[in-house]
Amino acid sequence: MSAAAFFDLDKTIIAKSSTLAFTKSLYRAGLLSGTTLAKAGVAQAYYQAFGADHDQLVRVKEELANMTRGWDQDEVISLVEETVDEVVAPLVYAEALAIIDDHRRAGRQIVVISASPEEIVRPLCRYLGIDDVIATRSEIDEDGKYTGEIALYAYGPEKAKAMIHMAGKAGIDLAESYAYSDSVTDLPMLVAVGHPVAVNPDSELAVIAEERGWEIRKFESAVTLRDKIPAKAVGGAVVTGVAAVLAYWALKGRKE
After folding, report:
1. What average pLDDT does range 160-166 have in this prediction?
2. Which of 229, 219, 252 is nearest to 89 (CA)?
3. How do residues 211-253 score in pLDDT, each as one tens digit?
């Protein structure tokens, strides 16, 4: 059997909420009001400082479903793909890219698993050269519009269930696999693997990780991919490889 490395996305690979990061693009496209944009800015600042607990994430799910009702899925996907470089380039943790590269070199499958919408997570991960994604999936009607219902909310226990399902289909040995997350809400995901890693953990996860002797890592260095990599390279595995090399040398220099 093979092994995998499962990564949460927000505050683990990127430095902020992937969903909130795209609010300005949605506002410019006329999909969000100015009031909603302002609220998103406050939410982003709060998230950066304190993270998000269970009640907040459930509320985000409900608000997301209500807000997107009637939107055209193809329009959202196109918008994200057009703006992913602008939005994500300055947000990626160098440490995460270096670790992803290490796992890839070791032959492990790289999987991003996120509560953010699939329409945002997949283009973002393609930008980083990651193809395997588990993310929140909305219901779409026959006209390609969002119904306001959520088909899969990839959060909490549902993340672990999705991981176990994927592992069964792909022949992945979870006991030999790794999982990375910052939040105690991802505890089911972390305990599902043999090698759990707490990244920038919130206070509750930090306590649990210490008690259980889990590895704890601090990610701090942001890599601005747009300034380092030619535009033609963006969107493939070259991005991850080059960025990981840059990250490695940047971190090596800091340690020395």
Report:
1. 95
2. 229
3. 999 999 999 887 665 544 433 333 333 333 434 444 443 444 3
Bridge partners of residue 113, in order along the sequence: 134
Q: Minimal CA–CA distance to 223: which of 51, 101, 46, 110? A: 101
The fold of 4-255 is Rossmann fold (3.40.50)
DSSP string for 227-251: HHS-GGGTTSHHHHHHHHHHHHHHH
The predicted pLDDT at position 241 comes to 40
| C-beta neighbour count of 87 within 10 angstroms | 21
- Return d(Cα 75, Cα 7) in angstroms, integer: 27
pTM of the model: 0.72
Q: Are 197 and 215 in contact (CB under 8 A)?
A: yes
Amino acid at 7: F
- Annotated catalytic residues are 8, 10
Mean pLDDT of 17-23: 55
Tell me the sheet residues that pair with 134.
113
